[in-house]
Write a structure and sequence with these properties.
The protein has eight helices and eleven strands. Helix 6 packs across helix 7 and helix 6 crosses helix 8.
């Protein structure tokens, strides 16, 4: 993936230097920012392909910047990897909840970082052009990368979009969390199975317009399925 622009946002210059060297060796073009305000200006001006964002920043935190970017139509599709010294699960889930695509806990090796960055970029580019998929007013158009419910535009993050696209092309079948990770996130990625639950919850919230979240059904002890049939009472 040559010529991809990666924005590194960290207030510690030695960490930025280390990341820049690792990314340039992997043939990425690197942009740098030391705080959220500088980062936001670069994001608007340069449109990076991915953001490596430190959790702890002076002033506006990394998590708040991520939340702001995911609320903005112009920036919501830019993948974000959170860099954090906080290894606790709640913090990881909080990062995913605001829209981050992955997180890496410091300290980490440059090789691990580049591998995970490549995986996130691959996932962001993996949608294929095909005919719109429609079911009961819900429409996903892969060409324009848009989702509507009875012509109402639905906003969702890139991971939720890929999850919905997979469900729409594999209706009525139950998939375990592990299978969803393989199909939607791709093999050999460093993502925990609980991450699937976070994105399912966000997808349901996005589809809650006119009750279309009913299509995403939990099958206890098994996983999830997409169905336009009424789920049995025990599901």
């Amino acid at each position: 993936m040559p010529d991809k622009r990666i924005l590194v946002v960290d207030d510690e210059s030695p960490i930025r230097d280390m990341l820049r060297v690792a990314l340039e060796m992997a043939e990425y073009h690197v942009l740098e920012a030391g705080d959220a305000q500088e980062a936001h200006s670069l994001i608007i001006d340069k449109k990076p392909d991915l953001i490596l964002l430190d959790w702890m920043l002076p002033g506006t935190s990394g998590i708040e910047l991520a939340r702001r970017l995911k609320r903005n139509e112009v920036t919501q599709d830019i993948p974000i990897i959170m860099l954090t010294a906080k290894g606790e699960e709640d913090n990881k889930i909080q990062g995913l909840d605001v829209g981050a695509d992955d997180y890496i806990t410091k300290p980490f090796s440059p090789r691990e970082l580049v591998a995970r960055l490549k995986a996130v970029l691959r996932r962001a580019e993996s949608h294929s052009a095909q005919e719109p998929i429609q079911i009961d007013g819900l429409c996903l158009d892969p060409t324009s990368h848009r989702v509507t419910i009875n012509t109402i535009p639905i906003n969702m993050g890139p991971t939720e979009y890929r999850l919905l696209e997979f469900f729409l092309t594999h209706q009525e079948r139950v998939y375990t969390r592990s299978q969803l990770l393989d199909h939607v996130w791709g093999g050999n990625v460093y993502v925990e199975e609980r991450t699937v639950d976070v994105h399912i919850r966000r997808l349901r919230k996005a589809l809650s317009v006119q009750g279309h979240d009913r299509f995403i059904q939990t099958v206890r002890g098994a996983g999830y399925r997409f169905s336009n049939k009424i789920a049995p009472a025990h599901n």
